[in-house]
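Feature request, filed as a ticket because there's no other form

It would be nice if the structure record came with a short human-readable summary line next to the tokens. Right now we just get the raw output. Example of a typical job, pasted below so the devs can see what we mean:
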Amino acid sequence: MTQSTLPRLLRRNAEQMAGRPAIREKNHGIWQTFTWAQYWEEVRDFALGLAAHGFRRGDKLAVIGDNRPSLYWAQLAAQCLGGTAVPMYQDSIASELVFVLNHAEVSVVVAEDQEQVDKILSLRSELPHLEFVVYDDPKGLRHYSSGGLQSFADMQAAGREFGAANPGYVEAEIDSGDPDDLALLTYTSGTTGRPKGVMLSHANLLSSAQGFIAAEDIRATDELLCYLPMAWIGDSLFSLVLTLLVGFTCNCPERPQTVQRDLRELGPTIAIAPPRIWENMLTQLRVRAADSTPLKRRLFEFFRGLAERAEQRKGEGKQPSLISRLGLALGEVLVYGPVRDQLGLRRARWVYTGGAPLGPDTFRFFRAFGVNIKQVWGSTELAGLASLQPDGEADPDTVGRVTPGSEVRIAEDGEVLIRSAAVFKGYYKQPDATRETMTDDGWLRSGDSGFVDRRGHLVIVDRAKDVGKLSDGTPFAPQFVENKLKFSPFIAEAVAFGDRRPFVAAIVAIDLTTVGNWAERRNLAYTSFQDLSAKPEVRRLIADEIAEVNASLPAAARLRRFVLLNKEFDADDNEITRTRKIRRRFVAEKYAAVIDAFYSGEAEVEITTEITYEDGRKATLTSTIVIEDILEPAEPAREPAYA
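Raw output as currently delivered:
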């Protein structure tokens, strides 16, 4: 199997699992199913259409849009012809699109709908390599007359004509493909600068997938909801590679806004999401509990506490008492089962969190409610996955064991090094960056600081470049503090500072929905995010939340000062990546005045921030924000403010 390619696996599935469901798409409220035989026909016809228009081995095809079967088919079609797929983030602004499309020398873009087509056409003069654009949804595009623009259906129709004149063309191209051919050019999230194009071969991708299969009980009968950005390597690994290797069914939601409803309706057996989604789920649950009747709220809090105590005892190797087990059984009927059903996870055998650390409190909450959530760790350069937690060994403090076929080594400075067949071919057009990422003896520098514990589990402390020390020498890992803060339903994002400083301080962005609901219940009027975050009552609310977090932190790591940012952290403003990772260095530079004010004892600071709109226009936002001090010692635990 290691000598195979993704198109060969597709052809195998069409022959051996012809009538089994391969992918579904919800359209106008109805799930439309495509079997593996139909999946192959759709890919083959589009590949022939590409060939008819001159697409050849080594060419690049980009896809942009929400998760649609046609966009997965387009990627595989390019690979059938020996080309390379370049998935892109659907919410990318103009400058990001121009950079990736030109850097990758993309000749074909397959766009989901009119919105994405308009983006690409508006940049046409800046894209010298682009030859034509294909769209899937024709709504609003029937009267477009731009040259080089055509529908997905027309491309397939041209492919059928080409195929009739050139029988066996695609099959021959697939047979001439090599496992070391470049399959995906996936761009990193760019936490430290411009995104880098990660070159992944068929062999890299299949090696990562096979390591996952060797460690996990994944089945052809499994169901997956495909809703994560197609440019994220996690989606490529699950929705393209693993589904081809194993034969399970992928499902595309109707729209991003219907994901939660579609999740409940489908009830997938596999789920994967980055921490931000699990944090949002938890926030919504807590808000919903707060808005329910007093009886339901008390029941929720009682059984939540019971489940979390039982989960903590399990983590300590102890069994719950008989009374606790009886209470948990009752809680399953009254609370835990209904909550999993609301989340669409009642049938889930296991779910994964990856892409960044998940706070231990959030992790324990879901496990306590019967969700078999487990942490995975990997990177784009590792084709997605390098470690996962086995059933029965889930632990919020580790990312599990490295997958079969991978080796881990800890460098002298604490950086985690990985060696496996999944390690990428290099950064596209950046040989110097590639050399910096690899050791002389073939190990990948992950950029993460960590260690292997006594059980053989890998523990990731933080990004190696972010781990530091307070001025008194106390170790400081900002992500640890930030994850604690984000357990609060009122905090959407936080960036902690303290390296070579006397104490820890943080810039906090409130969760507009949750804090807005809190304000409305107290008849606290506001007009905007900026207005709400500036309210003294909101500052006191967040101060109380931080004081509660401080009670669970070592004395040296406790926050002493914070500010509430007057806007959300935004990917368009380069503050976070498209996968919602903080660009810590950029934030530190952008808000240098705030950081200086933290440590100079100022009571307030004036900041001017630049805001970028989707069309590339920029505006500035100026305001004076108050710096809050956290009283010590932390106040005793109180009733949650959301109750």
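Something like this underneath would help us a lot:
Confidence is low (pLDDT under 50) at residues 634-643.
The first helix runs from residue 6 to 16.
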